[in-house]
């Protein structure tokens, strides 16, 4: 860890706990800051806050009192999930108090360079692939961010011999000042989190922050098949490495004659890749580009791509149940992710879908439901998904209370050779704390079938 003095004797407010808030508060305390932590959860129900109290850190729990902003804070480190329209954040910005997220702290203390991945879909798969390729290439990577340990906690332990591979959300990227990854990847851009950001433009601007501090000494790996991503590339000062599944490029990562290519070099035959789904070729190309830029040999990249079959909750193979193949795609929290999942299979599909209602109507799913023979719905969006399913001509549509009940119902409508697919097209928060919880419940229910 780099020993920095920029926070010594500074009065800093950490707003919101969870794992990132606890780690940030502890780190700032070590760096000599006067830390106050403010979390909505009452102290009696808040073991994290109690632990910080034992370290001698000031803790205020149970509410976010706006008058707290009058105490002369020089900086706020906010939990990424707290939106900028929160009264505390609005009040801080009006007073000229800088607001960052914990990722900024990680960058400031890290001895290791960062490979940072963002985008709408494919972030977790790409992050995992980059990590695995670097590990196979003996590059001593560490993994952080949404997919792993809190970034600043990883950065504390990292040395110059490591590389930190980090998945970053738009929420996190809105709160950076100097963060500058050696390699940045933007997988793709579609509508997402508009309830948080307010507009697609703000969402895209947040994603673009991943490259805002890069120079020609750093690399931006960018999707060449989307105009919005290429617009970010045109505004970036980084060295641009494009990737494409649709075009043959003069440089970068692309497909040609059944091969994945990098800078005109054949790296691996597509038919030797284990990871299913055409959409995953985007993830493979961008991660392969990051690995090549990091000095990983083709043999190590091939080793990973021949064996890697996906991450947990992202088109994850669960089991064969009496001839039915079952997949957990709980991380499909928007329609595009579900479209990609549906396109990955040729066999008849029993689709389990539904969840938090964010106001969209799911009509974009319609052309991709031709292979769905039965539909089992749950959650707030069940009626909307049922309407689209009926319009697609699906004969068997049934609503259940939750994912656990959806599994035996889906099995009841299936036959040997079918695919049973949980791909909700929605966030989980109407019924479950996270998509991980939803996926774990699904997996448990599948194993009960066996």
TrEMBL record:
Residues 313-426 form the Mur ligase C-terminal domain. It is found in: Cytoplasm. Residues 117-291 form the Mur ligase central domain. InterPro entries: Mur-like_cat_sf, Mur_ligase_C, Mur_ligase_C_dom_sf, Mur_ligase_cen, MurD. It catalyses: UDP-N-acetyl-alpha-D-muramoyl-L-alanine + D-glutamate + ATP = UDP-N-acetyl-alpha-D-muramoyl-L-alanyl-D-glutamate + ADP + phosphate + H(+). GO terms for cellular component: cytoplasm. One of its GO terms (biological process) is cell division. Its EC number is 6.3.2.9. Its main location: cytoplasm. One of its GO terms (molecular function) is ATP binding. Belongs to the MurCDEF family. Cell wall formation. Catalyzes the addition of glutamate to the nucleotide precursor UDP-N-acetylmuramoyl-L-alanine (UMA). This is UDP-N-acetylmuramoylalanine--D-glutamate ligase. It comes from Neobacillus bataviensis LMG 21833. The lineage of its organism: Bacteria, Bacillati, Bacillota, Bacilli, Bacillales. The gene is murD.
């Amino acid at each position: 860890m780099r020993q920095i003095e920029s926070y010594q004797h500074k009065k800093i407010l950490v707003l919101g706990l969870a794992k990132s808030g606890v780690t940030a508060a502890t780190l700032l305390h070590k760096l000599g800051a006067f830390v106050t932590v403010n979390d909505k959860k009452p102290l009696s129900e808040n073991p994290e806050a109690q632990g910080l109290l034992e370290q001698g850190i000031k803790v205020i729990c149970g509410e976010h009192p706006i008058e707290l902003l009058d105490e002369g804070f020089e900086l706020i480190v906010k939990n990424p999930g707290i939106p900028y329209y929160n009264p505390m954040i609005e009040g801080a910005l009006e007073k000229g108090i800088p607001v960052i997220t914990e990722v900024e702290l990680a960058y400031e203390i890290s001895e290791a360079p960062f490979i940072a991945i963002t985008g709408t879909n494919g972030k977790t798969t790409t992050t995992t692939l980059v990590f695995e390729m670097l590990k196979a290439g003996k590059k001593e990577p560490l993994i952080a961010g949404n997919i792993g340990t809190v970034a600043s906690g990883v950065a504390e332990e990292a040395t110059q011999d490591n590389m930190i591979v980090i998945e970053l959300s738009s929420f996190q990227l809105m709160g950076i000042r100097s963060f500058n990854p050696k390699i940045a990847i933007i997988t793709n851009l579609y509508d997402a989190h508009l309830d948080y950001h307010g507009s697609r433009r703000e969402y895209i601007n947040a994603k673009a922050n991943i490259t805002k501090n890069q120079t020609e000494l750093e690399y931006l790996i960018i999707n060449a098949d989307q105009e919005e991503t290429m617009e970010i590339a045109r505004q970036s000062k980084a060295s641009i490495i494009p990737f494409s599944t649709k075009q043959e490029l003069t440089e970068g990562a692309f497909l040609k004659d059944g091969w994945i290519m990098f800078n005109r070099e054949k790296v691996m035959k597509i038919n030797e890749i284990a990871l299913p789904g055409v959409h995953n070729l985007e993830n493979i190309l961008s991660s392969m580009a990051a690995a090549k830029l990091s000095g990983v040999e083709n043999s190590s990249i091939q080793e990973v791509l021949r064996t890697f079959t996906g991450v947990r909750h992202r088109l994850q193979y669960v089991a064969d149940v009496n001839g039915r193949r079952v997949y957990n795609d709980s991380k499909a929290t928007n329609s595009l992710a579900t479209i990609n999942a549906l396109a990955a299979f040729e066999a008849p599909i029993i689709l389990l879908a539904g969840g938090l209602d964010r106001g969209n109507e799911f009509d974009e799913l319609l052309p991709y439901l031709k292979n769905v023979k039965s539909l089992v719905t749950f959650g707030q969006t069940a009626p909307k998904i049922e309407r689209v399913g009926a319009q697609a001509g699906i004969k068997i549509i049934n609503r259940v209370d939750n994912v656990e009940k959806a599994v035996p119902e889906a099995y009841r409508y299936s036959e040997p050779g079918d695919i049973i697919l949980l791909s909700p097209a929605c966030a989980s928060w109407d019924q479950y704390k996270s998509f991980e919880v939803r996926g774990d419940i699904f997996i448990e229910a599948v194993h009960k079938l066996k």
